[in-house]
Design goal:
disordered N terminus, seven-stranded mixed beta sheet
Length: about 450
């Protein structure tokens, strides 16, 4: 699984220290974008478009009114004023969605609603507030409902102001014209893009689907939130954090929850989940302890005799990375479909940081996005004292970023179990491998999490 330039790292990777970039390059070299499929519009939300979309019909498809008012001929309202209004004969209503419209002749007006087609003969629309609304009682503030006052579609209307040609008329094709490119391949479909697709009559669209990510946490000490804690037990927060993070990255995420410290149970659980997984993420059990069952369960996955089981995909490699937190990591492909699996450490902060640095880019790569990384900025460190960092390790510290001031402030300590501090952070402060101390006021790289 070694990426180019990392040929010294092979076998189990146990004796080597991999750099963050080498590990990430290896992951991204293995993960391939999902095959495109045709989806209904709402199912395609958050997905990446794989083809240009051309407009089949102009928007709007016809000249229509931008106001409630009266469709008129310009000559008939020229010179109209409060003292000498233009008096026109109302020949009927034009409502949105109405098929046949009356033709507006000399001295005539058609009452028209917003969005309704401009009727034949009409050249402009005068808003109802420029008229007496057909009531003969001075300037109107609105129209009475047709159902309660059908007589409003006939009689006379007084117009108190002139209108220029095309006044309050939305021209056919003024939004987009037939043949225009509505959306380009690579566009992520949000609400405005789905609105445009619907407006031009597209019921389905070809996209790369959102990846299905299965999240499992391991540990006999883990208890589902809401249940009673026994001695030596803690609530399972990792599976919730990572499932939420996967959804935030754009995936459809399934939380399996805590699996007990039993290698065979874990193996069979993962095997059962492969049917609905484009990516499997485990958390916990990847260190060097006697109960690190993820390693125990997956170490044998590369067994060439295991043709039907998890090993058919090629196996999982466990590595030590030159990073803090998150030193122990596992990565490989499992099962008949070579489903990628990322095994993350179990400490909550290590697990979350590992997700942001390794899993999120993998999810975005599966989606076919060109830019898989969180945005990175430079910011000035504000702190009471210098930050220390171990030599040869890339450290990721939680921080709060102030975009206006261009500063970043550390939140909490460097302990990999400090979940409360993580909840206050909106950024990761990156301390490079060759830096052991960062003085306040120094510019640092900051990964934005928000």
């Amino acid at each position: 699984m070694s990426s180019s330039g990392t040929t010294t790292h092979h076998g189990t990777g146990q004796g080597q220290l991999w750099s963050v970039d080498e590990h990430l390059d290896d992951i991204l070299a293995t993960v391939r974008p999902l095959e495109p499929i045709e989806l209904q519009l709402l199912d395609a939300q958050g997905c990446v478009l794989v083809e240009d979309v051309t407009v089949p019909v102009s928007l709007p498809p016809f000249d229509n009114s931008s106001m409630d008012g009266y469709a008129v001929r310009v000559a008939d309202v020229a010179g109209a004023g409060e003292e000498f209004p233009a008096v026109l004969t109302v020949i009927g209503d034009v409502a949105a969605g109405q098929g046949e419209q009356p033709t507006v002749g000399a001295g005539q007006a058609a009452r028209i609603m917003t969005g309704a087609p401009l009727p034949p003969g009409a050249e402009a629309v005068v808003p109802v507030e420029w008229t007496d609304g057909g009531l003969g009682e001075g300037t109107a503030v609105g129209m009475r409902a047709h159902s309660t006052a059908p007589e409003g579609a006939s009689g006379e209307v007084r117009v108190y102001r002139p209108a220029e040609a095309r006044a309050h008329v939305r021209a056919r094709g003024s939004d987009v014209r037939a043949g225009d490119r509505a959306l380009t391949a690579g566009t992520v479909l949000g609400a405005p893009q789905i609105a445009l697709l619907a407006a031009i009559g597209r019921g389905t669209v070809k996209v790369r689907p959102r990846p299905r990510v299965v999240v499992l946490s391991t540990g006999s000490e883990l208890v589902q939130p809401g249940e009673e804690l026994g001695d030596g037990q803690i609530f399972d927060s990792n599976s919730f954090a990572l499932t939420a993070a996967a959804r935030d990255a754009g995936a459809i995420a399934y939380r399996v929850g805590a699996v007990t410290d039993d290698a065979e149970i874990l193996r069979s659980t993962i095997e059962d989940q492969l049917i609905r997984a484009d990516l499997v993420v485990t958390t916990g059990g990847v260190s060097v302890g006697a109960y690190d069952v993820v390693k125990e369960a997956l170490d044998s996955i590369g067994d060439p005799d295991d043709e039907e089981g998890l090993g058919a995909g090629g196996g999982v490699e466990f590595r030590k990375l030159a990073m803090q937190p998150g030193k122990p990591q596992g990565f490989g492909a499992i099962g008949p479909d070579h489903t990628p699996l990322l095994a993350l450490p179990g400490n909550p902060v290590s697990s979350y940081v590992s997700f942001e640095i390794f899993v999120r880019p993998a999810v975005r790569a599966l989606m076919g996005l060109p830019d898989v990384h969180r945005p990175k900025v430079r910011a000035r460190l504000t702190a009471d004292k210098a930050l220390t960092s171990p030599s040869g390790r890339r450290q990721f510290l939680r921080g709060r970023h102030d975009a206006e001031a261009g500063t970043v402030t550390p939140v909490g300590g460097s302990g990999s179990h400090l979940v409360a501090a993580l909840a206050q952070a909106d950024a990761l402060i990156v301390v490079p491998e060759d830096t052991t101390s960062v003085e306040p006021g120094t510019e640092v790289d900051v990964v934005l999490l928000g």
